[in-house]
């Protein structure tokens, strides 16, 4: 159980540091004329992520979930996601944020993992929301937050892409929106 608390503690500290970086980047970009898109869904996203940790801790503690028999490969996947997360932050630099902050006229970042994927950080978060609960056989948490995250991304990605298409070189980089896209 000690490993569980260390892991959860480290992830929570990491998230708090990321929020601080996001606030700094937000202030920097807003001072340059950026705007926030998708404001209405952001509080729900924050609540979802906070509820994830609460649900995970409750399921593991109340139901006495032991580590998974395949905890080592799952931990390796989780640690790989942390390396990829840092790569995303380093690639986006001041453009990385937990909010959708758009700087009009900016060039869309196409370095690091963004060279190959439009939204690699969302792949990382999705993987984390599955792997962390599976490390401790918290199947309810894994299933519930897989569904909630899918819903959240179905709202967030279109809002982000719509704002990027309107205010940056997103269309030049990725082509115009297809039918049904924002």
Automatic annotation (TrEMBL):
PANTHER family: BLL3993 PROTEIN. It comes from Edaphobacillus lindanitolerans. The keyword Transport does not apply. Its main location: membrane. It holds the Pfam family ICMT. GO terms for molecular function: protein C-terminal S-isoprenylcysteine carboxyl O-methyltransferase activity. Keywords: Membrane, Methyltransferase, Transferase, Transmembrane, Transmembrane helix. The chain crosses the membrane at residues 43-63, 70-87, 136-155. It comes from the Bacteria. The keyword Chloroplast does not apply. It is a multi-pass membrane protein. This is 15-methylpalmitoyl-4-hydroxy-2-pyrone 4-O-methyltransferase. It is found in: Membrane. GO terms for cellular component: membrane. GO terms for biological process: methylation. InterPro entries: ICMT_MeTrfase, Metal_cation-efflux_comp.
